[in-house]
Amino acid sequence: MPATQALAEVAQLTAELQACRDLLARQTRSLQVAEQKVASTELEFNRDFGSFLDKTSDFVYFKNREGRMRFCSQSMATLFGYADWREMVGRLDRELFPPESSEVYADEEAYVFAQGQPLLNKVNSYRGANAQQGYVQTSRWPLFNAQGEVESIFGIGRDVTDNRQTQAHIQLAASVFTHAREGIMICDAQGSIVDVNASFSRITGYRREEVIGANPRILNSGRQDAAFYAAMWQTIVKAGHWSGEIWNRHKSGAVYAEILTISTVFDAEQQVKNYVALFTDITPMKEHQSQLEHMAHYDMLTGLPNRLLFADRLGQAMRQSDRSKHSLSVIYLDLDGFKAVNDTYGHETGDALLVTLAQRMRLALREGDSLARFGGDEFVAVLVGLEHAHDCVPVLERLLLAAAEPVKLSFNDEPVSLHVSASIGATIYPKDGADADLLMRHADQAMYLAKQAGKNRYHLFDVAHDTAVKHQREWLDQMRRALKEGEFVLYYQPKVDMHSGLVLGAEALIRWQHPQRGLLLPAEFLPGIENHELSVEVGEWVIATAVAQIGAWQAQHLLLSVSVNIGALQLQQHHFVDRLMAILERHPDVPHRHLELEILESSALKDIAVVAQVLHACHAREVRIALDDFGTGYSSLTYLKHLPAETLKIDQSFVRDMVSDPEDLAIVNGVIGLARAFGRQVIAEGVETAQQSALLLSLGCHQMQGFGIARPMPAAHFIPWMRQWQASPFVHAS
C-alpha cells in the first residue's frame, strides 16, 4: 500500500476516533445531566412524601413482610405517644401498640398477606398513649414484587370516633322515641304534627296516620280557656319551653290529665324548626289525689267536713263577718247518752246512729252554714250572716230537736228505737273577739256548762265572765312569777306603847316591787288571790320572811315581836300547824312568843270550831294570837269566848272618826272595856293624830300603830327609825 494512502487512512481513522471521543464526551455529559435530574426528582419526591406524612390527619403506614413499620403518618405516631413517626420505623405492632390492639392488627394483616386481597373499611377500637379511647376505620392493600408475591402492606385509616358517637346518639334518640312510655309529638314551625310515637297513640287513642299533618288542637278538652293557651305560647316564644299540667280529650271523648312539656328546636340560623311535646297521663294520680284530699278534709263515716276543713271554713266565715259586719256563731255539740248506745248495741249500730243524726242536723242548718264532725259524738257548726246574736237560737233549737228525735234501726235483725239528746255550747263572733281556735274552745266550755245544767239544752258563752276569769288567770301567773323571782318584800309598821314610848314590835305588811308598776300595796294585788291556793303559798312566804327578820333583829340585840296576817284559806289548811312549826324550827333561836298571828273575824267565822282547834294548837306552842279588825263582825263575843286571842285590835274605821263621832267613840270604848273584862290586851290601829292618841290613852288603850306614829318601812330602816323615835317620842298625854 503506498505510504500516502496509508497516511491518509491513519488520518481518517484518527479523525473518526476523535469524533467518537467527542460523541462519548457529549453522551457522558448528557447522562450526568440526566442523573442529576433523576436525583433531584427523587429528592423532591422524598421531601413531598415526608411532608405528606407529617401533615395528613389520616393514619397512613407501610409495613414489610415481617410486619415491621417502614414509615407512617405523624398523626398516627402522635396518637400512640411518639414525637416523630421515624421512631416507629423498623418496629413490630406489639412494640408499638397496646396488646389488645396489636393482636387485632396482626390478625387482619395476616389475612392480607395470606389472601393477597385488600381488607377495606374495617372499624376497630383503639386506646391512645394518654388513655384516650376511640374508633378507627382502616383499609389495607397488599403490595406485590416482580414475582407476584406480597412483599408489603399499605394502609390508610381515619378516626371515626365522632361519627360513631353521633350515630349512637341518633340510634339512642330513635330508641327513646320508639320505646318511651311518655307520649311524644313533634310539630313543624307552623304547628302541624309531623310525627308521634306509639305512646302518643296509646294515651290519646289516635293512630299515627290520623294525626300527621293535623293541629294539636284536636286534643283540646275545653277546660283551659284562650287566655291559658295565650300565656302558654307567650312563655314558649320567650323562654323556648313551657311545662305544666293540662287537661286534654281522648279520641273517645274522655277527658284526661297530663303533665306536658313543650320545647322549641332551632336550626343553625336560630330559626324555629320544630316543637317537641313530651307528656304523661296523670289521670290515675289525679283521681288518687282527689281521694286523698277528700279523706284529708272529710269524715269517712258521715261525709261531713272534718276538723281540718272546718278550720278553713271558719277562717273564711270570720273574714266574711269582718267585711259584712254581720255576726257568726260557733257551735259545739256533744251527744248525750251515745256511749250507752255503743256499749249496748255495739259500734256498728253506734255508727249507723251517727250517720242518721249527722244527716238530720245538716238539714237543721240554714244555707251557708257548715257542720263538721270532730270525732266520736262531737260535732261543730258555724252559723253565718247573723243580724243579731239571738238569731242563732232557732237553729240551736232545731239541732236539739234533730238530736232528740228517736232513730229507728235494726239490731240482730230486730227493730230498735234509739234515743239520745244533745248538749250544745255556742259563742258569738265578733262579740267574742277571740281567734278561731279560742272560739271553738269557748263553745266547748259552754257545751260542758249545758251538760252540767242537765243536758238536752244549749248554753251561750259568757264573754264578760270569761274575760274576768282570763284576767284572774293572768294575774295569778304574774304573782307566781313574782313569788319565784323574789319581787315580794315585807314592810314593817311599828307598834308602840304610847304611855311609856316603848317600841313593842311591828306588823309585817307585804308589798310587791312590780318591775313595771313600781311598789304595790296589798289592796292592789291580794284580793286577786283570795280563796286561791296561791294565797297559801304567799302567806307561808310572809311567815318565813317575818320569822327570819325576827332572828336578824335578835342577832343585833333587838328583841321585837312581829305580827303577820293569816288568811282564811291558809288557816283552814289541815297542815297549817305543822307548816308553821317547820318554819319556826328553821330558826331555833327565835322564841315562838315573838311571832303573833293576826286573824280576821271573817276568817274565823267560816268554821269557828276548826279555827279554834288550829289556834289553840298554835297557842299551845307559845305562838301569840291577835284578833284583827275587832268589832267589824257580829260574833265578837263568841270569838272572845272560844278563841285563844291575847290581843284585840281596834279597827281603824272606828279610830278614824272617834274624836268627832260619838258612836265610833262608844264602840272603841266598848272594845277596850271587853278587853279589860276578858283579860286581853288591846291595840288601836290607824292612829294618825295626837288628838286620837290622847283620847285613846284617856280610855285606857296604851298600845297603838298608825301613820301618825310611823308608816310601814323596809326592815333596813326600822332600827334607824327606833333611834329617832327614842330620841324624840311622839307627843302624848300622860
UniProtKB/TrEMBL annotation:
Every GGDEF domain range: 326-463
Domain EAL: 472-726
SMART domains: EAL (SM00052), GGDEF (SM00267), PAC (SM00086), PAS (SM00091)
PROSITE patterns cross-referenced by the UniProt entry: EAL, GGDEF, PAC, PAS
InterPro entries membership: Biofilm_reg_signaling (IPR052155), EAL_dom (IPR001633), EAL_sf (IPR035919), GGDEF_dom (IPR000160), Nucleotide_cyclase (IPR029787), PAC (IPR001610), PAS (IPR000014), PAS-assoc_C (IPR000700)
Coiled-coil segments on the chain, per record: 3-44
One GO MF term attached to the UniProt entry: catalytic activity
Keyword field: Coiled coil
Domain PAS intervals: 166-213
PANTHER family membership: BIOFILM ARCHITECTURE MAINTENANCE PROTEIN MBAA, DIGUANYLATE CYCLASE DGCP
Name of the protein in its database record: Diguanylate cyclase
